[in-house]
């Protein structure tokens, strides 16, 4: 089972690239983030024509997450996280596919920091961690896949100096991510590439792609039962080079 996380940066603008990726790679599950589409305007017909069922949690112009499954309809389990009833951001969607629980996650960016957006980011990490603990208790294969907007380690970025003031790399952001992983989750990409230097995002600005000035913010965290089935993990980097591509590359883990 190839499980992919892919921040598409606007599903309407990237739909040709997404359909192309599904046709060429035929992943079993794809978690999408940053749909920038309401529930009503999600391109369900195009996704189904590509051979995928889908559940989605949209939001007009901002955020939005989805789970796609090849040849079947994901069974939705939960949308949104408990803890802040006034939070109307579409950032979390949990589904089950062939006995594997999969969550699509779009963690808040948090910039500018310090400030209310950064405070919201840290609270959101804590709310995710609370849900993650509940999922571990179920003792099922679980994959928490998404754009975490956290650079966990210094070797997960092209330049520590360039990113030192960014919310993605603040000590509090990193500590929240480490506390989450320490519950018993396995960082799939880090496990397969322990020396770092693997990027999942390249900004559109300043020739970042051409300079390979990227960093790793897209992660797949595996529960113990999922980690036992881990075969490989990687980044389909070449899709970032295509015309009108997302600024993220599809990032994946393969399970037995």
UniProtKB/TrEMBL annotation:
Transmembrane parts of this sequence: none
Residues under site feature: Important for catalytic activity: 218
Residue numbers annotated as active site: 106, 147 (proton donor/acceptor), 248 (proton acceptor)
EC numbers on record: 3.1.11.2
Superkingdom of the source species: Bacteria
Keywords per UniProt: Hydrolase, Magnesium, Manganese, Metal-binding
Site feature: Transition state stabilizer: 149
Family label: Belongs to the DNA repair enzymes AP/ExoA family.
Official protein name in the record: Exodeoxyribonuclease III
Organism listed in the record: Sphingomonas alpina
The encoding gene: xth
